[in-house]
């Protein structure tokens, strides 16, 4: 790729799995300090790439782009930009892609995005925007030499009528030019494996990186359903409920469950694991250490 920046589409096709971290855009000065603390603490682990998400409804567009630009220019990390269609005209989308290219960011994850204010509300296309993620993939591909990723839904996208339709939408995004995918967070490895199998059954071989997040507090359980669009596994929820009164035990169980999940995913030949950090580094560093024997 230009400027010697690796394409994530190539990295996830290498024999060794990728390990990457996802951060969220900061909301204020304290959040900014916390984000950069986490980035500096995780930088020595030399992840394959890192990403900064977009706020609901594209609300953090400028913060997201600015943080991605700063990672590109001020760190040794390979940044992946997030781009969403919500509330953006085609002209604005092209402008953002141009800003990213100007600082050497060549890896982009495109997501259609949720409506602002209500993630489950009716999706309304910007009058001068695009309707589907596949169109966004094409827009980025036409804008230059980019490696483009898309979202995958192990359970299914909340808006998809059924699993079959969901698979068709996913394959359409890949055929539009996406060369890798990252899943929404999930807590059941079988959901991931079923997704991989049904995509492979269509003849689509786009590598699907697993997006994971450890449950560290009971409050995360409800939030996980909202963020993933999938019901939290009942059996696992019962294990957490059993220790709900002991925060240390909840965290221990969450870390243990996540390490076990990652080991199984690696055994199953996952092309990569993408850790959702919520701008904290401790849990990610612990997991990284736990997985050292299987990463080697």
Q: What keywords describe this structure?
A:
alpha/beta, 8 strands, globular
- List the strand order in the largest sheet: 1-2-3-4-5-6-7-8
Q: Write down how many β-strands occur, each being a DSSP E stretch of 2 or more residues.
A: 8
Shape from CA axes? Answer: globular
**CATH fold assignment:** TIM Barrel
* Average pLDDT rating: 86
Tell me the strand percentage band.
Answer: 5-15%
Topology as a string of helices (H) and strands (E): HEHEHEHEHEHEHEHHHEHH
CATH architecture: Alpha-Beta Barrel
| Structure annotation, total helices | 12
Number of domains: 1
* Low-pLDDT ranges: 114-127
The Cα radius of gyration reads 18 Å
- Assigned CATH class: Alpha Beta
Note down, in words, how this protein is organized:
The structure is a single chain. By secondary structure, this protein is an alpha/beta fold. The chain has helices spanning 8-11, 29-42, 61-74, 90-102, 133-142, 163-175, 189-200, 219-228, 234-242, 247-267, 282-290, 292-295, and strands at 18-23, 49-52, 79-84, 107-111, 147-152, 180-183, 208-212, 272-276. It has one domain (2-295): TIM Barrel. It has 12 helices and 8 strands. Helix 6 (163-175) links the parallel strand 5 (147-152) and strand 6 (180-183). Helix 5 (133-142) runs parallel beside helix 6. The radius of gyration is 18 Å and the shape is globular. It starts with 7 loop residues before the first helix and ends with a helix. Mean pLDDT is 86; it is low at 114-127.
